[in-house]
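Changelog entry

Holo records now carry the ligand SMILES as an explicit input line rather than a separate metadata file. Below, a converted record for flavin mononucleotide, shown in the new format.
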Amino acid sequence: MNPRTVTDRVSLLGVIDWDRTIFDSLIPLPQGTSYNSYLLKGSEKIVLLDTVEPGKAYILLNQLSNIDHIDYIVSHHAEQDHSGTLPQVLERYPMATVLTSDKAKPMLLDLLQLPEDRIHVVKDGDTISLGDRTLKFYYTPWVHWPETMVSYLVEEKILFSCDFFGAHLATSNMFADVDPLVLESNKLYYSQIMMPLANFVKKNLDVVETLDIDMICPSHGPIYNKPRFVLDAYWQWVTGLPKNLVVIPYITMHHSTLHMVERLTAALGNLGVTVKPFNLETADTGQIALSLVDAATVILASPTLLGGPHPSMANIIAIAALLKPKAPFLGFIGSYGWANTTVRRVESMVEPLGKEWLPPVTHKGLPNEDTYAALDRLAETIAEKHKSIGLAG
Ligand SMILES: Cc1cc2nc3c(=O)[nH]c(=O)nc-3n(C[C@H](O)[C@H](O)[C@H](O)COP(=O)(O)O)c2cc1C
Ligand SMILES: [Fe+2]
Ligand SMILES: [Fe+2]
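Structure line, unchanged by the conversion:
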């Protein structure tokens, strides 16, 4: 990618990584991603905002080939997808100083072994003058790590948000406009990176809302030239009611649990509740995480294997515990062969999530009419619980 003009003072640099399929060795990237870097030109100072994945350093250095002088390099976040090319950029520009938060400085020293005298700490609310332009820093901890901050180009009303509002999306479009596909990628990113930190995200949304913003330039995915589009979506994800939706991660070895899932799904559908079942044998963890942004109820469905839930279920419980979805209701259904031990095991595993535990439905072997009736009752309970928190029936 060549540098692209955002405004006459702001250029988009960085890398569109079409081929990347996984992030942090954890998050599937169905649409690739990008590492955005921005160059700001004031009448007196030139600033580079963030860098790129270290393996892609050559692309950023090529983009800077016509730039002889950089005064400051702002590092909003110490994670290597944005900081990883700082060593090469500092070498190319010996006059440049890294500006970063107080918590990021020691992290940059630890992670990249940068020379300490090249790093200058900016405080929350500090400004730097670029001549006829001003850059102001706001500490926004925990979007994504404890040291994260954002910056605001005052005269142009542009927010540089780094991971905050980012989307794992490789696209040739520079602007998001109001493209629903961008929002879907953004929501996928939110579900895995931001949802576990929703309390911090809310505080930082409050900070961002004090600013008059014409454009949000994140470090992943396209630029929000209509920022209300992404701000409103974030408010809904963070503080809005969940949807009238039940997510059912399930696994089955001999189909008994599957029959139970099918019955519950049908019964909920008849009551006007949307259901998303995910077979853990094949399901994309990212899609489960995405659905957890909206779910009001999660029903875990697993047979008993060696006295406990199937390991695939244990894995998804561990992931759900990390993601901290807002769903207030949680339950369990499943089949066992000789000892009904799994339900207790699962209950103790999910206790830290602090959810309301719905009456479990378990059955020895193939479910019978009594069990199907119990599943119908569970569906009614779920529908009533949803109504009780204001979700349409
Ligand atoms: C590998 C394996 C281990 C099992 N371990 C247990 C167990 O510890 N306790 C138990 O009650 N049933 C155990 N079962 C029996 C299953 O829980 C039972 O067959 C159940 O109906 C399977 O549900 P499914 O058809 O949804 O796979 C085990 C079955 C398999 C295949
Ligand atoms: Fe990050
Ligand atoms: Fe990132």
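Spot-checked after migration. The mean pLDDT is 97. The radius of gyration is 24 Å.
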